[in-house]
Design a protein that fits this description.
About 40% of the residues lie in helices and about 15% in strands. The protein has helices at about 1-10, 25-35, 45-50, 65-75, and strands at about 40, 50-55, 60-65. Strand 2 (about 50-55) and strand 3 (about 60-65) form a beta hairpin. The longest helix is centred in the last third of the chain and has 12 residues, at about 65-75.
Amino acid sequence: MRSIAGRFAEAGLRVGADLGAESLGVKRARARALGIPVVASLGPREAFSKTVTLSWPDDRKETLYIEAALARLSAFCAVPAPPGRSRAPAA
């Protein structure tokens, strides 16, 4: 599980791992209280299937393969382009 946190950090995402014994609901509530918008959870089921479950600010949850979760979170955290300018690099 810690190696997954390392991959997320290497992708430029801020990561904190909560390995405590509290329930996932308690951990999510604590994250929300701290202003953390998205919680990525990884338990035995996700570790076996090489997935991660993302809990979004609107309480929606989605389980994605790790690479897809990294892409989704990176897009979510990206700074928007200024009005009238594309985020695509110039050719």
